Amino acid sequence: LIGGIQSVTLSDEEARRRRTQKSVLERRAPPTFDVLVEIQSWDRVAIHGDVASTVDALLRGFEEPPEIREVDDEGNV
Fold first, then answer.
1. What local confidence, expressed as pLDDT, does residue 26 receive?
2. CA of 7: how far to CAs of 3, 63, 73, in Å?
């Protein structure tokens, strides 16, 4: 669903440019869905607006915070 991942070996120059190791994980293909809604609880969801960007960030060791939405006591989001 996230496009699969694969191990890629980078050139020395590319590894220096990215400031990473020579062997990294990358997405193999585009994700199935553009947006992901993560149900965290009955009244809270996390919305990942760009799944490809979120997956790419996680594979590079960064965290892309999602948009959090909560339902209040009156049922408003």
1. 84
2. 13, 20, 46
Question: Which of 45-49's residues contact partners 24+ apart within 8 Å by CB, and which partners?
Answer: 45/69, 45/70
Helix (H, G, I), strand (E, B) or coil at 59: helix
pLDDT at res. 54:
93
Q: Is pLDDT above 80 for 30?
A: yes
The structural domains of the chain, with segments of one domain joined by +, span 5-70
Higher model confidence: residue 2 or residue 47? 47
Q: Which long-range contacts (CB under 8 A, 24 or more apart) does 51-55 make?
A: 51/2, 52/3, 52/27, 55/2, 55/3, 55/27, 55/31
Cβ pair 60, 32 in contact under 8 A: no
